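Re: [ENG-882] Designed sequences occasionally contain unexpected residues at chain ends

Forwarding the minimal case from QA. Structure tokens:
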């Protein structure tokens, strides 16, 4: 007498996988639910709370935050001293972005078109190696490098260019007692810290430029300068914009570098840190943070209108 095998019940994991397979909507909700929750509740929610705080104001007599909607904080924001902070920060961010693009493009082009495999590995390591060290350590290292008795001043002296350095440090707006306490030194540190964030997007964009288009431009009689202007630059423009978003926004909001390097002239990030910490004026600090958000929104809209995101 033979017995028929009994059917085993599918496991809970098997039933769950079958349910997700037959209902793709459940699977999509399960995959997108946590990141959407983070974006909408944590990120967007915190930005909304920040925006709401900017419409409160600080009572001048009690020093307490008055939770009544008003534009008092924005009225305080648009004073001469605060407008100077905004212009100084935006100007520095724009200068760092332009300089980073000018330095990053030739290096990225050489890495993509001319460097050997070993050379690429060495250059990639040189670009990424600073990112492996502490941000604070790099900033304080540059403070020592740019000091009056630092290695950079010594090297300039060995080249016989001390008079040129002294002339630069005497210029109003960028000079100071030494490079470590000047706007020029602040610019150099910003450029060093954020340059890798410009090189990598440009390098990725250049990797996507077909070699055949460059060869075709040469075959049709285009000079190297014309090929660069009409073929390479338009195709790498999205990468330049992507890198500029990093360098511009990071410079715009940084508060550590201006607190360590430079002549203590306040920047937006430093002002926000001071107002929400030492002064306790959270509404004014929140209003200050709206400025970088607005500037970056205008910048992104302008880049989108120019077609920078079409090839991304």
């Amino acid at each position: 007498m033979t017995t028929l095998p009994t059917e085993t019940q599918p496991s809970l994991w098997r039933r769950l996988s079958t349910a997700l397979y037959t209902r793709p909507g459940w699977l999509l909700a399960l995959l997108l639910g946590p990141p959407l929750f983070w974006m909408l509740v944590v990120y967007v929610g915190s930005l909304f709370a920040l925006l709401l705080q900017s419409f409160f104001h600080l009572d001048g007599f009690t020093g307490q935050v008055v939770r009544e909607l008003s534009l008092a904080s924005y009225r305080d924001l648009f004073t001469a001293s605060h407008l100077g902070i905004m212009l100084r920060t935006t100007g520095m961010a724009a200068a760092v972005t332009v300089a980073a693009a000018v330095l990053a493009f030739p290096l990225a082009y050489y890495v993509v078109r001319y460097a050997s495999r070993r050379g690429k590995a060495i250059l990639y390591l040189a670009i990424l190696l600073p990112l492996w060290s502490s941000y604070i350590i790099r900033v304080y290292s540059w403070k020592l490098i740019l000091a009056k008795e630092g290695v950079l001043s010594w090297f300039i002296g060995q080249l016989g260019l001390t008079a040129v350095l002294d002339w630069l440090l005497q210029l109003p707006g960028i000079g100071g007692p030494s490079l470590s306490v000047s706007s020029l030194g602040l610019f150099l540190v910003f450029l060093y810290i954020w340059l890798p964030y410009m090189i990598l997007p440009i390098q990725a964009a250049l990797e996507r430029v077909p070699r055949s288009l460059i060869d075709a431009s040469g075959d049709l009689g285009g000079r190297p300068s014309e090929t660069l202007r009409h073929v390479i630059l338009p195709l790498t423009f999205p990468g330049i914009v992507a890198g500029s978003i990093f360098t511009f926004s990071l410079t715009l909001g940084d508060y550590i570098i201006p607190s360590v390097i430079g002549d203590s002239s306040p920047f937006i990030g430093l002002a926000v840190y001071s107002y929400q910490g030492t002064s306790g004026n959270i509404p004014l600090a929140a209003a200050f943070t709206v400025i970088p958000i607005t500037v970056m929104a205008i910048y992104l809209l302008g880049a989108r209108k120019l077609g920078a995101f079409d090839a991304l």
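QA comment: On inspection the terminal residues look reasonable. The domain at 74-107+128-305 is CATH 1.10.3720.10 (MetI-like fold). Proposing we downgrade this to a documentation issue.
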